[in-house]
Amino acid sequence: MVQLCVDDKCPCGSGRVPRECCLKAGGELRPMATVTRAPVPQTDIRNGGCYASGLADCSADISREHYISHALLRLLSVEGRVTIDGFPWQNAAAVSSVPPATLTGKILCSRHNSALSPLDAVAAMLFRRIDEFHHEIRDRKYENRFFLCNGHDIERWMLKTLCGAVVSGNAEMRSGQSNWRPPLEWVQILFGENRFQRVGGCTFTVRLAASPVSSVDLSSSRSPTRRLECMGRAYSSMMNALFSPCPHRPRT
Ligand SMILES: [Zn+2]
Ligand SMILES: [Zn+2]
Predict the structure, then answer these.
(1) pTM more than 0.85
(2) Average of per-residue pLDDT values in the chain
């Protein structure tokens, strides 16, 4: 079991000690969810180019948004470029190397774009940690440690990425519907005005060799190779759940 000392930094990465951060009275460590509500007062503007216009709280201008977090794209970049395939604007089976700025769309007003940006920071930290764990396992440094992030933030980041990818025309609805906009309930969840239903949120299944598992439990796999495989499959399951090839051209 991992033990924390009073002077250790909080495993959420805030830089504070746990008692001034995520440590609750009962000894539980629980990071706070990020605030994504746009600041008051409400603007009463419905910007037709913003997929959150149903909240009637837009700014008049539209911003250019990375539908996959810019910080995550930077993490995946090699010499300032990311390798992509399967996008509708690529030739079939083509693999391209593009700068992250290519993967943007005008899908949110600037007010709603900046309200969601804290979710990008949480996701970037999660993927940075996954990357660090990969390297530690590869280098056979088995440190006994863990880190914390708020699961509700990750769920909302996934929902944000899903909405951005579909609205920008870079992922498709299974129904083939074009010009899709997220339902108001989803937008309310994203901007902190509603919660996921009990059965909603982030769950997915990974299968290791012949034995199916119902959740990602890295601690139960003793073999480093098996852990690495589990992590890789979890990551790709998550990405496959989010993105599928799309026949429509992206909106510009
Ligand atoms: Zn903390
Ligand atoms: Zn807006």
Answers:
(1) no
(2) 78
Distance 119 CA to ligand 1 centre (A): 16
Domain boundaries, the chain: 1-32, 33-242
Cα gap 189→52, rounded to integer Å: 11
Q: What span, in angstroms and rounded, lies between the C-alpha atoms of 240 and 46? A: 33
What does the pLDDT look like over 21-61, one tens digit per residue? 998 888 888 899 999 999 999 999 999 999 999 999 999 99
Please give the distance, rounded to the nearest whole angstrom, from the Cα atom of residue 117 to the centre of ligand 2. Answer: 13
Structure token digits, residue 28? 């539980």
**Closest by CA position to 54, among listed 177, 157, 163:** 163
Query: For residue 184, how far is its CA from the centre of ligand 1 (angstroms)?
Result: 32
187 alpha carbon – ligand 1 mean position (Å)? 27
How many angstroms separate the alpha carbon of residue 49 from the centre of ligand 2?
A: 8
Tell me which amino acid residue 47 is.
N
103 Cα: distance to centroid of ligand 1 (angstroms):
32
Cα(31) to centroid(ligand 1), Å:
5
* Tokens at 109, concatenated: 């007003």
Rounded Cα distance between 58 and 48, Å, is 9
**Angle CA(33)–CA(34)–CA(35) in degrees, nearest 5?**
120
Please tell me whether residue 6 adopts helix, strand or coil conformation.
coil
